[in-house]
Amino acid sequence: MTNDGPMFKNIQEDQAIRHILEGTATDIGERFFQSLVKNLVKVLKTKGAWVTTYSERDRRLTPLAFMLDGGWLENSSYDIAGTVCERVIIEKRLVHVPDSLLEMYKGNSDLEELEHLLKNFAVISYLGVPLLDAGENVLGHLSVIDSRSIPNSPMIISIFKIFANRASAELQRLRAEKKIHQSEEKFRKLFDSAMDTIVEIDKDFNITRINLSGEKLLQLSSEQASGRPLRTFFTTNEFNKIKALATTLERQPMNIQGLWIPGGLKTMTANGTGFPAEGTLSKFEYDTKACYTLILRNEKQKLEAEQKILSLSVEAEYLREEIKALGNYHDIIGDSRPLLQVLRKVEQVAATEASVLLTGETGTGKEAIARAIHNSSKRGSKPLITVNCAAIPSSLLESEFFGHERGAFTGATISRQGRFLLADKGTIFLDEIGELPIEMQAKLLRVLQEGVFEPVGSSKSLCVDVRVIAATNRDLPSEIAHGTFREDLYYRLNVFPLEIPPLRERGEDIIKLARYFIEKFSRRMGRPAPTLGQNDERLLKAYPWPGNVRELQNIIERVVIISSGDTIELLEVLPTLTPPELQAARNPEREVARQPLTEKEMRLLEKDNLLSALELTGWRVSGETGAARLLGINPSTFASRMKKLGINRPLAG
């Protein structure tokens, strides 16, 4: 051992192995690496040694144990760039620097701290080796340093590698242990986050553990359930069903590891409360022993959840309709005397529980008035459920009003709540009540009088507390006389009658509504809002508005669409007015002094005049009985004006 130098000549390989075994036999983790480094320094008689882990992502070494000159240094990580360790890691081989180690770090500002450390301890030599796994991946690095030259001795390198192999083995064990821990933690989270109850069972059908859902369902903790016989949660017949299924599983091919339990299971909680459950049984092996997993789902809770989801979905749809309706009207707009009279009555009746019957022409805003009554009442925080009686097929009305049970009729695959139940503690608005078939009127009357009904297919009576507001554009007393509407239902609904005035009687409200709709549709279309001129206002007030507010809204939407400037093109979309109506629009106070007509009004008058003449003469233009002779103009001039004004003879038929 002449090449080993005086400091290493007494080192023996068996002595090194003994030091490793004695020093690390009972240690693991951090204590193991401290023992390993301490014994490495002792065996090789070096100034220091350290063992690290390596992060390939950020190219840094983190010491697990670092001994220098008999003391332990703080374990701070460092970048390998420019260090002697970099060659060890990148080239995956042992690197030996017998002397002049400091020369490698001079002039490198990033390594000043390391250079200062080596200089303080007069370190001149280095021996390092990578710690590799079975796949030749770098796990870390082991090295020794000394203030004297470390000789390149086969014996030293052999002993050094023995320490390195031991360090590598422990690093691999720690990484495997970490992966197992992470896998177990992941499984535990999955196990406990499952919504279904999971029960693990040993070969003797004793419970080994249950998940969090199982704790809630069976009403005991996993610790309390562990070791408890499975039979305590089932009747004898149900438990035998599980055992029989386990026997069937044992006979199944390996690829079939789970079976559904037909007919479900009658299950009991820890306190003896029974409930129906769906279940599956699976098998697995642990430590060469057969084990089972029983997965349970409370069928009653499942049905209740499905029913709740359906109920919330239906209620959400009604709320969407209500929000849409609120968006259509936003609020009741206007301050005309007829409207203010209605609003005073709304204020009076809202504070009561009385039924209200809204009457008036179609499109007058009866739903907006119903909403105002509801919102101003004590029930305003509860739902307002709207039912359009004319829009629901007569065969579905009872189900729509009162709900149905599963299987009540073809297509009833699930139970469904009716609108009266959804309106409980709130208000139900029965629009177009006059369209309700006579056979449904008696059932509706019972609910209004007693607050009781039975869902279709059920014998169980349900009670509700609902305020009723109804609306119609029909003459219900006339319907009663003809036998199409029940008189007792009429009186039950007509506790507080409220007639909504037509738009033509609301004067300046027409202009306010028109301006509101212009702003609304212009904003929706992302364009500047055109203005209403004086002639436009006269035309709006002169028109009779048979479709009321709904018709006004549609007209204004078309006006905004076709308008290209600051003014609207009302005459192009407003249904044709007769010349007297136009004159009334032009001169509403019937003043003697006539005002000049605009060009559009002149063209409209001329067109109406030509059409009147054509209709009187059967669309004959020329001849003694033709329209041209009737108006006293040349037939060719008449034909030219027809073409200019876009007048075409309608097709026969």
What's this model, at a glance?
With 653 residues, this protein is α+β, with helices and mostly antiparallel strands. It is built from 24 helices and 22 strands.
Structure description:
The chain has 653 residues and is an alpha+beta fold. The chain is built from 24 helices and 22 strands. Strands 1, 2, 3, 4, 5, 6 and 7 form a seven-stranded antiparallel sheet that branches. Strands 8, 9, 10, 11, 12 and 13 form a six-stranded antiparallel sheet that branches. It has a five-stranded parallel sheet with strand order 15-18-21-14-22. β1 (48-55) and β2 form a beta hairpin.
Task: List the topology elements.
Layout: H1 13-24, H2 29-44, E1 48-55, E2 60-68, E3 71-72, E4 78-79, H3 84-91, E5 95-97, H4 112-120, E6 125-132, E7 138-146, H5 154-193, E8 197-201, E9 207-210, H6 212-218, H7 222-225, H8 236-251, E10 258-260, E11 265-268, E12 274-286, E13 289-298, H9 299-329, H10 337-350, E14 356-359, H11 366-375, E15 384-388, H12 397-402, E16 403-404, E17 416-417, H13 419-422, E18 427-431, H14 438-450, E19 452-453, E20 462-463, E21 467-472, H15 476-481, H16 487-493, E22 496-499, H17 509-525, H18 534-542, H19 548-562, H20 570-573, H21 579-586, H22 599-616, H23 627-631, H24 635-644
Parallel strand pairs: 14-21, 14-22, 15-18, 18-21
Antiparallel strand pairs: 1-2, 1-7, 2-3, 2-4, 5-6, 6-7, 8-9, 8-13, 10-12, 11-12, 12-13, 16-17, 19-20
Helix pairs in contact: 1-2, 1-5, 2-5, 10-11, 17-19, 18-21
